[in-house]
Amino acid sequence: MCGRYAITSAPETIRHLLRYLEQPNFPPRYNVAPTQPVPIVRVTEGKRHFALVRWGLIPAWVKDPRTFSLVINARGESVLDRPAFKNAMKYRRCLFPADGFFEWEREGERKRPHFVRRKGGGPLAFAGLWESWMGPNGEEQQTGAIITTRASPSMAHIHDRMPVIVPPKAFDFWLDPKVDAERTAAAIQPAKDETIEHYEVSRAVNRFENDSPQLVEPLIEPESEEDALASEPAKKSKADERQGSLF
Fold it and tell me: What pLDDT, on the 0 to 100 scale, is given for residue 224?
């Protein structure tokens, strides 16, 4: 499961890693949440391009998105079989730029958030799928989902799933639509333990309205209920809570 992640590296650092043509300028985000606009990298006419999509995939065959469940993750074990993913797996694979993701460890009635990142920090890329949905009035919406797999042994005690982290040497392999979907699906696997690290962070990340560097800093001392509540913003209106914005 991947329900929150962070994009904190400078735009030029991410562009250097993923080598797309555009030069977008965007602020760091420390708490990216479902339904928000998020960046992806995909191949069009043989070139890598930067694009924005809604995080929550809507297949092209859906009649009314309001009746379709929010799909932010695609299980790697079933991407070739499930109707929602199989066409995108063949023709619309992408990469989600990120600097790490959040996962929650259950402890009795509580859940303790952890931040998982590349060892030593720095940008990375999640395997993803994107789709273009066309409405009855001609409106178009591009959406995406992050592919997940079983957790690496070092973080399996936190959660049994994690995003598929694509190593840079495999970017072309994953993005190239000429590469058979069965071959790319066979390469879906957890990150190697020696390439990632994780640590506990503040429960302030539980609220997507919170977005600051403190969310990805290690939690030095145990967090009391008072501390957690104090870090949360005042309640917003329903209109404010529907969707945040990445850019």
Answer: 64
Q: What is the DSSP code (8-state) at residue 165?
A: B
Cβ 102 vs Cβ 113: under 8 Å? yes
- Distance (Å) of CA 122 to CA 1, 186, 246: 21, 26, 19
**Which residue, chain included where needed, has tokens 């940008």?**
123
* CATH no., domain 5-241: 3.90.1680.10
Q: How far apart are CA 233 and CA 212, in angstroms?
A: 12
The neighbouring-strand residues paired with 131 are 143
Active site residue 103: yes
Q: Which of 2, 45, 105, 109 is catalytic?
A: 2
The model's pLDDT over 82-97, given as tens digits with 9 standing for 90+, comes to 999 999 999 999 999 9
Considering the candidates 45, 103, 107, 139, report the single residue annotated as catalytic.
Answer: 103
